[in-house]
Task: structure prediction
Amino acid sequence: MQKFSSQDIATVFGCFRIRGSVTHAVPLKTGHINDTLLVHVNGSPQPDYVLQCINTDIFRNVDQLMENIWRVTSYLQQKIDDGSYSGEKLGTLQLVKTTDGQLFCKEANGNCWRCFVYCRHNVAACTQITPALAAEGGRALGLFQSMLADLPVESLHHTISDFHNLSSRLSQFNAALQENPRKRAAEVAAEIEAISRRAKDMLLVHRLGEEGKIPLRITHNDTKFNNILFDDQEKALCLVDLDTVMPGYVHFDFGDAIRTLANTVAEDDPEIENIDVDLNLYKSFAQGYLKVMKDVLTPAEIETLAFSARLMTYIMAVRFFTDYLMGDIYYKTDYPAHNLVRTRNQLALLQAMETAKENMESIIETIVEV
Ligand code: GN1
Ligand code: MG
Result:
């Protein structure tokens, strides 16, 4: 990320209520959306802060985005500090305000920056996920949702409207097919068919939501497994990447965690013949999650939990594919077919999950029975 000079970074950093001066800043390349820098101060070998330039093409209303993050992190912090809250607790990311008390800093050129305290974590944890780590990740997600369960859903803004609304994602997909601006549609008939034939069945959770059969809750909405941080003892510290915390269905979080955790390869691995769903990790994550959430969730939510893994894998296939058809305007890509590779990967994972459907369902049933 050469686009920010060290001078720029030092200037931006100076807007925040922080201690020390920047010695160096290292770009973090894992996200697809914002530009993230790990900032070291006073020669520290470990990063001290995370500085992020917010992607304002995607997050149009930065005030609302940052209000959500502030509301959620301060609510979690209050629960952590509050002696009257007796349940198990999960830590939280800590936002650093600007010197004049704002939640982010807007430069004259329009760039919007925010700063978090760097959460010292076990960086290697997610490279080799064990069943124990998966279970702890599931527990962390359960705690995140349960600690926020009494924060009114309507107190959060919708930072991206219709973010996981499958009907609207399918409309965008169909519009991209019609428009076909890069003339890419002719060569991807198999993928078009794979998306289209599943559309109706995939709307299950959204239908139940519209019929009032499952509740809206505060959800994270971007729970790829590496958004859960762990310490050296592999105990969960907190969830990061809070841009999309807003009202949603628990399925979005459970499903996205499984989509990323239980895939035997990375989401953009082209070797799709190696793709399978790791049922051991799935089971462990579900055990950790349900230990916390079993008594919070309604029967209808529990019944459709296994389905959520297929739902989120499908939604991601639709989104990557739409972006491919549109000419890669949303996700950062490293090469021209990157979004198509991601699409094929997600469709192969979906296929594997369909094969394992009964197994995945009975794993959840068995966990909730005990
Ligand atoms: C994006 O930036 P990152 O990697 O955290 C996307 C998620 C997708 C993910 C797929 C705001 O998240 O919804 O699941 O890519 N975030 C947004 O890797 O669109
Ligand atoms: Mg994200």
In short: The two ends are 50 Å apart (CA to CA). The CA atoms of residues 65 and 136 lie 28 Å apart. The mean pLDDT is 96.
